[in-house]
Every structure is written in C-alpha cells, then in structure tokens.
Prior knowledge:
Blueprint: E1 7-13, E2 20-26, H1 31-44, E3 48-51, E4 67-70, E5 77-81, E6 86-89, H2 95-102, E7 107-108, H3 120-126, H4 133-136, H5 139-142, E8 143-149, E9 155-159, H6 164-170, E10 179-186, E11 188-189, E12 194-202, H7 205-215, E13 221-226, E14 238-244, E15 268-269, E16 272-273, H8 277-283, H9 287-303, E17 309-312, H10 313-317, E18 335-338, E19 341-343, H11 347-360, E20 367-373, E21 386-394, H12 401-416, H13 431-438, H14 440-453, H15 462-467
Parallel strand pairs: 2-4, 3-4
Antiparallel strand pairs: 1-2, 5-6, 6-10, 7-11, 8-9, 8-10, 12-14, 12-17, 13-14, 13-20, 15-16, 18-21, 19-21, 20-21
Helix pairs in contact: 11-12
This protein binds flavin-adenine dinucleotide.
Amino acid sequence: MRPLALSPRRVMDGFGFAVRGVSPTVRPRSAEEVAEVYARATAEGLTVGMRGNGRSYGDAALNRGGIVLDTLGLDRVLSFDAAAGIAEVEPGVTIEGLWRHALPLGWWPSVVPGTMLATMGGCAAMNVHGKNHFHVGGTGDSILDADLVTPGGETLRVSRDENADLFHAAIAGFGMLGTLTRIKLKLKRIHSGRMKVRQVPARNLAEQFEIFEREAPTADYLVSWVDCIASGAALGRGQVHVAHYFGEGEDKDGARLLDPNRQDLPPHILGVPRALVPKILRLFNNRHGMGLLNLGKYLSARFGPRSEYLQGHVAFAFLLDYVPNFRSTYEPAGFIQYQPFVPKEAAPYVFGEILKRTQAAGMPSFLGVMKRHRPDDFLLSHALDGYSFAMDYPVPRAGREPLWKLTGELSDIVLDAGGRFYPAKDLTLRPSDFRRAWGQERVSRFQALRRQVDPAGVLSTDWARRVGVDEPRD
Ligand SMILES: Cc1cc2nc3c(=O)[nH]c(=O)nc-3n(C[C@H](O)[C@H](O)[C@H](O)COP(=O)(O)OP(=O)(O)OC[C@H]3O[C@@H](n4cnc5c(N)ncnc54)[C@H](O)[C@@H]3O)c2cc1C
C-alpha cells in the first residue's frame, strides 16, 4: 500500500485560539478518497480526526499526534429540488454556500448557527442549533438521510429507516463514527428576504425567562443578550430578540431581498465602520471596559426605541460575522466559550448561580447569550427541554488554572441539575463530566457502535481523548 499523501504539517487552532494543534492534513475530494485515507491510516497505525471549517471553539476539530482529514475539498451542492426545498450537499459546503444557493429559490436553511462559515458536515456532526431550536430542533432534525464512510471500509446510507441507530449516533456524534460525505436535508420555505424583529428589555434574569416563556409559543426565533457583569437586583438583565417570518404575500418589497447580493452585511455597526469594531472592542477588553459596554447596551435597550423593525435573514442570523476577526479582541491568550444546557425548571437557579459565582471570582463573562431548546432523539445530543447560556471568558494571561477551576465548579452545578454541555464549545470538560452528562448507558451504546464501524480505533480527536470518548480498546 502506498504511504498517505499528506500535506505538510499545518498549525490549526480552536476558534477561541486557547488551544492549538499541529498535524499533517489530507483533503480528499470524493467518498472513495475518504475511504482510501482510512485504509491507509489503518495500515500505518495512524489516527484520523475530521475538521470542517474549524469553527468549533475548543479542541473538537484538532487531532494532535494523528492526521486531520479536512473536508473542505468536498464542497459541491449535488442537487437542489426547488419545488420541495430539498438539498443534497457534500459536507464541506458551508452554510453560506447553502443559503446563497437556496435564497433566490425562496428557501432558507431551517437551522443555522451564529456563523455562516460552518460546514454542513460540522453542523451535522455537532447537531448545531439555531435561535429557533425551541421551535424546529437542531440540524439533525432537518436531515433526511446521509452517507457515512466508516474507517472499517463501508459506505453506509443512514436515515431514520436505514441504519437508524448509526443515523441517530452519527448526528451529534462529533465525527467519531465516520465521515459524512453526503447530506440530504429539508429547508424552510420563505416568502421574504427579511423578518420582523422586536427587542424586549429584561430588567433581570427572572424577566428574561418570563419573556422567553411568553413569546415561545408564537415566535419563530428567540435569543437574548445577557449582561453578565450587572449584579444585585439587575443580575442577568439584558434584552430578548423576538423574530417572525413573513407569511405568503405579506411583504411585497421583501421579495427583492431574496437576491443574495442584497443580503450583504452592512458596512457599519452602530455608526462605526465594521473594520474598526475589533480595535474599539480591544480598548474595552477588561472587566471595567466590558462593564461600561454592557451598561451602555442595556440602557439603549431599556430607553431606546422599541418598535418592530425589519432585518434581512443574514444580518439577523450571523451577527458575529459582522465583526471581522472579532476573536482578535481576545489576543494574546484567547478565550473559551462555556455553554451549559439546563432543564427548564432548574435553569433560573443554575444561571443565577453561574452569574454570582463568576462575579465573586472576579471572572465574569464578557458576553452572555441565552437560548431556548427542545429535546431530540440523537444519542449524544446536547439538546434538552430547557435553556442554554453561552458565555465568553478570556483566558487569563497569567495562566488558565483559575478559569478551569471555576468552570469545573460551574459544571458540577450544571450536572447536579441534570444539564449537558455542547462539544462544539467545550475546552474544559473532564471525563467524569462527559459520562455524567449523557449517562453511562448512552455512552456504552455509542462505544458499541464505534467498535462496529471503527474496529481498529482509527477515529480520534483531542476533544474525544480529553473527555474520555476514546476509551482504550481491549
Ligand atoms: C461565531 C460562531 C458562532 C457560532 N454559533 C453557534 C450557534 O449559534 N449554534 C451552534 O450550535 N453552534 C454555533 N457555533 C459552533 C459551530 O456551529 C460548530 O462548532 C460547527 O460544528 C462548526 O462547523 P465546522 O465546519 O467549522 O466544523 P469543525 O469545527 O471543523 O468540526 C466540528 C466537528 O465536526 C466533525 N466533522 C466535521 N466534518 C465532518 C464530517 N464530514 N463528518 C463527520 N464529522 C465531521 C469534526 O471532527 C469535529 O468534531 C458557532 C461558532 C462560531 C465560531
């Protein structure tokens, strides 16, 4: 067998650049080439970890000591049924590639994360959720079927009817059961290129939950910004964004926004040229500066205009793509995103504790985002009937230990409440956390499927090794 044709060792980081890995990479262009990579890696005793566009914040798309299989060469939209809104794509197609294809035909991906730069393979492997998760579920809920190339040498069609156990484990299976090489999914019919958006201020955490519960039965999208620095009676204050689609014939002018060129992100944010925003954020990148920015944002939410406005789908969905290289704000040590998912009843207590403890430790999150979620039937999904709270924490320049100790304490509170975590955002979970979050029974079922499709234990990532997905084989 010929040796693997690898590109030179490439430096890759997690999106929060708090972790970095150097690996040889390989970029196959077909399912056959993927199978070839596995055959050769097996023969040479190498591990393979997959990487889409590297938008996971932590170490989920790194594989130090092994090969990284980069899926960006598999980037074709294979078919698009414009009458039914069904697309078949290769995994390296990005959300941007998909919406640019679909929008002029009157369709929009029914689930999108906060960045359009994620690939469909990465979204399926993480079962990505959007701001409409409470309403439509995650990426997996929109997938009809997929092809999975396994390290064991098979190409399997997986769906709710065919190889259903593998389907339910490969979605949200963080790339540990094989490479998804073709994904067929259903999109959402839209009648306008924009939506109706309202912003509702919340004076504290309790009001945030009240607004979510009140709006959820009718809203299409719900997401809230949380000021994680305010304390006392203002603990958890912020602003909930509520958005609705237009119905058929309701927005005559909106049809012209189905042209992708009219969806481009605006050149200014709050009057500041986009390119300058990271520089300005860097000036405020400390606890007091962020306290001021959060206060300013809250006051404008509380006392600014509250009328409904119209916003294009791209501007509404991909807020962080507005700010070029926003993560440079956190140089040089980088940042982590910590995102627990907590059952509905326990969320007010858990999120309140998180806010109080991070403030008491002098490490409040600089940015907080709350979303409402619903459960699904994917084996290791992070989805549940409850809320998530995504927080950005700068890694202290003096060393990561205090932050890791703090997140360990927070994780104990989350797990005591029956919560889960999201592998795409994680860099701090301990092996015991992984088993507690999903339960030994689910983890064992996942391991059994892994032994079936990957008998030689070829698949691995830094994340899987860290949290103990990658148990040593007998
Ligand atoms: C600014 C920003 C905002 C975000 N907002 C959200 C959000 O709102 N909701 C949300 O859910 N997530 C969000 N994310 C996280 C992001 O959507 C996920 O990390 C997603 O998986 C990234 O896709 P990717 O192509 O970059 O995958 P990568 O990060 O490269 O890989 C993710 C995982 O998928 C596996 N994988 C990749 N391709 C395949 C394949 N073809 N077959 C099998 N496994 C594969 C990899 O091994 C890895 O484990 C956000 C990220 C950023 C940077």
